[in-house]
Amino acid sequence: MSEIKERYFKAQQEEKKKQLENHSKTIKDFISLCSEIGLKLTNENFSYIQTIGIVAKYPNLLFHLKPELEKVDEELIECKSLEKHFEKKIFNSGMLYSDKFIAMAHPYFRRSLSEFANFAPRFIDLFWKFKDDKVKTYIALDANRVRVNVDDSAYLELDTWYGASFKEQIEKIPNGVVKIRPPAQLDETDISFFFNDAYSFDIKWTEKNEIKTFQAEEFKTEKVTINIRGTEYYPVRYLHAEYDIKNKHFRHFDGAIHFYEKTEYFQRRDSDLNFNEKIGTHLKAKTYKLFKMNENVSVETWITYTSHFCTGNPLVFEYFEGKYPDHIQEILNKIGKKASG
Length: 341
Known about the structure:
Layout: H1 2-22, H2 24-36, E1 46-49, E2 53-57, H3 61-65, E3 71-73, E4 76-78, H4 79-82, E5 95-97, E6 102-104, H5 123-129, E7 135-140, E8 145-147, E9 176-180, H6 188-194, E10 198-208, E11 211-220, E12 226-228, E13 231-244, E14 249-260, H7 262-268, H8 275-278, E15 286-297, H9 299-309, H10 314-321, H11 326-340
Antiparallel strand pairs: 1-2, 2-8, 3-4, 4-7, 5-6, 7-15, 9-10, 10-11, 11-13, 12-13, 13-14, 14-15
């Protein structure tokens, strides 16, 4: 096995070297482009990433190249304004094409929140194709990196995760908290394979002045962490939406990542979304907002994007459908029979 790994990593390094050599002129031209706006990039700022292509990395690079891009809410940019500066291509979701480079959706949309992974299907694919004149959309972009090989190459991964349906009327959902956990008989390996490392899915509904508010946090097991500038965090996907009872649509819907430090994570994960109301000092995680939809968001859109933001998590499907996806239920039945036999 060690020999196989060694050969694999050697082949990866050779491929990286070859790709950088093949794109040497493209890299040189991009360095010149950056020099014109006062940025000093060298070959060290470039890398080849199999899932992306030739990537240039520099602090706030995208906004140096496109200073006219305007952040309207924390790190979010209105999608309609992006159409003035970039072109979308249906086959390459998450990419925004210009003549000299390609901007990209934020790396927290990628699998495992990794800047080296492909985008986690199918949230970005759906978001890139979303069109509804009644809804204003906003998204976070990769500020520090752009792709410099402006061609039609794309790294495709198939995905079989589908969104759930939801037949309840939003206004009739009881206010309060819900906490969903994987079945108790599953071990760590089962949860990793079949529940995408989900620890719990926490939901809270509240209501005030004809507005019904939805909040949800998706906790992963403690093995899922991310290092940000030397500090280890536990990433938790967070969703928030406001439903207008009178007009029967969501007036606001957004998604973010909450980053909990170790003590905060273990304090919070076995409680619920009323946690701060139960303790004297409020626990407030670091937050990075990733997308937003405003004005007239349909219930169907809210369900679809909630399902795919938490991609591969059967607990989300269970909340909306009242059951697990069929293929997960079949696996659970087999595990149950094996345990009882």
